[in-house]
Amino acid sequence: MYQAIGERSQKNNCGLMTSMVANLALGSAICFVAFNTASSSLSSGMMAVRTAPATMPVAPMRAFHQPQMRMNSLRTNAEASLGLTGYVPYPDTTGASLTPLPAQGEKSKFSDELKATAAAIVADGKGILACDESTKTIGKRLEQIGVPNEEAMRRAWRELLFRTPNMNEAISSAILYEETLFQNAEDGTPFVDIMKSLNVIPGIKVDTGVRATFMDGETITDGLDGLAERAQKYYAQGARFAKWRGVLRIDANGAPSMEAIEANARSLAHYGKICQMNGLVPIIEPEVLMDGAHDISVQRWVTEKVQAATMKALSDVNIEWEGMLLKPNMILPGTDSGTTASPEEVAKNTVEGLMRTLPAAVPGITFLSGGQSEEEATRNLNAMNKLYPNAPWKLSFSFGRALQASVLKAWDGKPENVESAQKLFYALSKANGDAALGKFEGAHPATTGSLYEKNYVY
Question: What residue ranges in 50-137 does DSSP mark as E strands?
Fold first, then answer.
């Protein structure tokens, strides 16, 4: 049981009372099963759960708590509500039956390759270029500089990035959108061949977006249908890792709900196992958005809960820890909180939280920038590596906007600006490569400010 996030209020007190009643009801059910000598069924036990609260004097429920009651009922059969199979069922807390451990499962035939790829992605002083924006999202970026959202212009933009001289000094890999994975440069050379020639590992975004579920504004990520077949196709094209983003938010009405946390954790785990069995290193991305008025302690608390649930779900599917990477948010105050945090505060809250949740067997963490400015993202990553040089995992980056915003502005869609834009991209890449070693110093090359977008979608 849990209560809504935020300061105590009459609304939260009522929610707490509901939790207390539910806990008492659960206790009644346990007693019913334990001491009833007659043969009883699980359905009668559940009836005890439903009827027990009626015997207790409780504060009247407000109308706005009805969705919360609906979500709690969904939790009793979460697998069915999500349409997912293959996981350990939720334990029967009445004690009427016992849930066995999952089968040990088989290792991927790509196991050794997965480990080598994951280690290469987080090689010392290197990180990921995240250029997996959907056609719609990249169109918004191009619109900002007055460039039409046409295939030729999308190709020109990505070719600028991939053909930046020496970009592989700090970029180990790049996450691509499906169009880009199968796209050729202007001279006919496949982008994947250009990347391979530079020892840059191609990756692919495999989720298909989010859909609404549970509490208003909460989502679960889709894309599991046909994923194995798509993973095989992407592997044949040259991709060696994949990315899937689960999105959670914080608000004073109680989000994220436990249902949303568990739903996204399970879909991330399903995705991760499917990818490993088909040769792709899964990047697990459970993002807790920075939107909201909460302080940094709440962001850390919620993020730890999300990460812990995700690790449990990954364990349930027998993920190969050494063949995956985590892409979490850094721990920052909510954007509407009116407060800021120093790089040292961000580093402390982020890394110490991960020490509580992430197995040391995972080779690396590739942080998302999440709407921070290019400079903020670099300096926060740098602080982590300076303060925690002996962390059990590599602390690296998987930046999209924080590597591209200034470069896009410098390019402006004009061929004559390509060289200067590439020099800026190289400088930004090197700044973050140095930060991944805790060695970034001096002025930052970025030319933009905040990159925050509320409810950001790729």
Answer: 127-131
Cα dihedral sign, 224-230-235-241:
negative
pLDDT of residue 91: 55
Preceding peptide of 256 cis, ω within 30°: yes
Please state, in angstroms and as integers, the Cα–Cα distance from residue 1 to each residue in 4, 327, 422, following that order: 10, 28, 52
Judging by DSSP bridges, how do beta strands 241-248 and 219-221 pair with one another? Answer: unpaired
Question: Quick check: is 327 catalytic?
Answer: yes
Catalytic-residue membership of 243: no
The active-site residue out of 285, 320, 375, 376 is: 285
Cβ–Cβ < 8 Å for 159, 186: yes
C-alpha span between 161 and 426 (Å, rounded) = 9
In the set 205, 327, 348, 394, the catalytic residue is 327
Q: How confident is the model at residue 457 (pLDDT cuts 50, 70, 90)?
A: low
Which pLDDT tens digit goes with each residue over 222-250?
999 999 999 999 999 999 999 999 999 99
Q: What is the mean pLDDT of residues 385-392?
A: 98
Beta bridge partners of 184: 190
What was the pLDDT predicted at 253? 87
